């Protein structure tokens, strides 16, 4: 998914200060493609905390009725220095990218795209017959410095590990999680120690998860009355806990079932600058990526865009099959940001 804000801020990502309790991060609403398009609820990045482990972006959306509209329509756009994690609760999304992938993702399946030095992709609600509702979460992880130059790649995983315990169902889509003495490990590629899992809880369930004490964790609540370590976390908000815990307890209220997504990882201590769809280590990194993408885009009459000659062989490649041309990159901010150094 692209960040479609017209004037995205250039952000120095920071892990924030460690604390003993549960830190609550409330979302802000961001319209994708304008006020009449679908709206997402973004919890990270934000000023107080922009990283949970290497997780650097979280957009929660839906349930949206897409039966009478075009649904999700995100034209071809570029990425660097990250992995995109597409995860659905309801509906279907069709993914195309510049390494030749064409793959639908459905609930319980994982689409994982590694940008590395550069990739471009599009996402859309399939034309014709499709599920009425679209509902899910889009996540990004920042790649470590050693992986910034890796070749772009795409993975689809439709058979992910699942376990039932304590009145809950746990499905791990990234990394490893221990549930009721069972080790659940996703086959997906990661570049830093990470975990990502969907938690579905029955009314009144109390789920106890054995976790890596070196990890910090975030819980994004989709629906229901949910508490993390006894603290209430509202729908679309993120509850954060610092490293040091060997067990996390997630509970659902008695009034109905609940659903949440757990993310976590070792604190990411490298410098990170993020702007639009680019993750780098400096302002120069994102400025160079923007210039490279702009060189691939040709303006057409009426404000439309197309690929410039030879785009397929350039840094971000070319996405084939999407109905419109690629997105233009926004204008960079006037200020030049320097990443702050984090303690090791």
Describe the structure.
By secondary structure, the chain is mostly beta strands. The protein has a single domain (11-265), classed as Jelly Rolls, CATH 2.60.120. Helices cover 4% and strands 45% of the residues. The chain has 1 helix and 28 strands. The chain has one helix at residues 283-295; strands spanning 11-12, 23-25, 28-31, 39-44, 55-65, 73-79, 82-90, 93-97, 102-105, 110-114, 119-124, 133-142, 153-157, 162-165, 168-179, 182-185, 194-201, 206-210, 216-223, 226-228, 231-233, 238-241, 247-252, 258-265, 273-275, 278-280, 297-299, 305-307. The strands form 6 sheets. Strands 2, 14, 15, 16, 17, 19, 22 and 24 form an 8-stranded antiparallel β-sheet that branches. A 7-stranded antiparallel β-sheet has the order 3-4-5-12-7-10-13, with no helix packed on it. β3 and β4 (39-44) form a beta hairpin. It is globular and about 60 Å long. The chain starts with 10 loop residues before the first strand and ends in a 37-residue tail after the last strand. The model has no long low-confidence stretch (mean pLDDT 92).
CATH architecture name: Sandwich
Question: How many domains, as an integer?
Answer: 1
What structural class do you assign from the helix and strand content?
mainly beta
* Strand residue content: 35-45%
Using DSSP, what is the number of strands? 28
Gap from first CA to last CA: 31 Å
Report the CATH topology name: Jelly Rolls
Domain Pirin N-terminal: 39-140
Protein name: Pirin family protein
Pfam families: Pirin, Pirin_C
Domain Pirin C-terminal: 198-295
């Amino acid at each position: 998914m692209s960040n479609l804000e017209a004037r995205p801020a250039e952000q120095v990502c920071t892990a924030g200060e460690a604390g003993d309790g549960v830190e609550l991060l409330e979302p802000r609403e961001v319209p994708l493609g304008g006020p009449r398009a679908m709206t997402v609820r973004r919890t990270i990045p934000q000023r107080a905390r922009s990283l949970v482990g290497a997780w650097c972006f979280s957009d929660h959306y839906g349930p949206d009725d897409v039966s009478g509209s075009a649904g999700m329509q995100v034209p071809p756009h570029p990425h660097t220095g990250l992995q995109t994690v597409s995860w659905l609760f309801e509906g279907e999304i069709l993914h195309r990218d510049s390494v030749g992938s064409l793959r639908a993702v459905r609930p319980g399946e994982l689409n994982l795209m590694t940008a590395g030095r550069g990739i471009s992709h599009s996402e859309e609600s399939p034309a014709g017959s499709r599920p009425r509702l679209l509902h899910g979460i889009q996540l990004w992880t920042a790649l470590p410095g050693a992986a910034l130059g890796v070749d772009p790649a795409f993975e689809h995983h439709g058979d992910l590990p699942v376990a039932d315990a304590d009145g809950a169902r746990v499905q791990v889509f990234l990394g490893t999680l221990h549930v009721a003495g069972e080790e659940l490990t996703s086959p997906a590629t990661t570049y830093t120690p990470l975990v990502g899992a969907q938690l579905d809880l029955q009314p009144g369930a109390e789920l106890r998860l054995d976790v890596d004490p070196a990890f910090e964790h975030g819980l994004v609540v989709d629906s229901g009355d949910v508490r993390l370590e006894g603290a209430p976390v509202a729908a679309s908000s993120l509850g954060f806990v610092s490293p040091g815990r060997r067990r996390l307890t997630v509970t659902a209220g008695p009034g109905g079932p609940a659903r949440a997504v757990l993310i976590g990882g070792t604190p990411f201590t490298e410098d990170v600058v993020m702007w639009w769809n680019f993750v780098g280590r400096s302002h120069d990194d994102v400025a160079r990526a923007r210039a490279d993408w702009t060189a691939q885009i040709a303006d057409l009459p009426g404000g439309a865009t197309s690929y410039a000659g030879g785009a397929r062989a350039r840094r971000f490649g070319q996405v084939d099959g999407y109905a419109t041309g690629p997105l233009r990159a926004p204008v960079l901010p006037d200020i030049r940001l320097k990443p702050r150094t984090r303690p090791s």
